[in-house]
Amino acid sequence: MGYRLIGEAAMVVHFLFLVFMAVGGFLAWRWPRLIWAHLAVAAWGLTSVVTGVECPLTVAEDWGRRNAGERGLPPGGFIDHYIEGIVYPEEHTNLVRLGVVILVLVSWLGHLWRRRPHPRRKAGTDRPPPVHQG
Questions:
Q1: Were 72 and a residue from 66, 77, 80, 127 both cysteine, which residue would form a disulfide, CB within 3.0 to 4.6 Å?
Q2: How far apart are CA 113 and CA 122, in angstroms?
Q3: Domain boundaries, the chain
Q4: Which residues span the membrane (predicted)?
């Protein structure tokens, strides 16, 4: 039971990781400090795609499933098993990757645009000047 729980938990965290990688930059529009976590997650995603290094979450899920007596993940890992051919056709992998890159870049540009100083605000403040009613 414990090993299976490890495998299932790793799978859920992996899905959440991928969702955060795709849209975390937009969350940083609301919570600006999240941009640093999103930069790290996006860097890891890019590194894993470019170098082919195996994700520790894939390793943890595979280990948990095998030790629970289940079949482990196939050689392609998490993406090949849960995403490609299910969420989108395998032949569109590069197009989907490009779409995620564009989505991330748009979120970062939007984050920068939202963080720029507003001309009517004092530099370094996030609030508009108070309105005096009289």
A1: 66
A2: 16
A3: 2-115
A4: 6-27, 34-53, 95-113
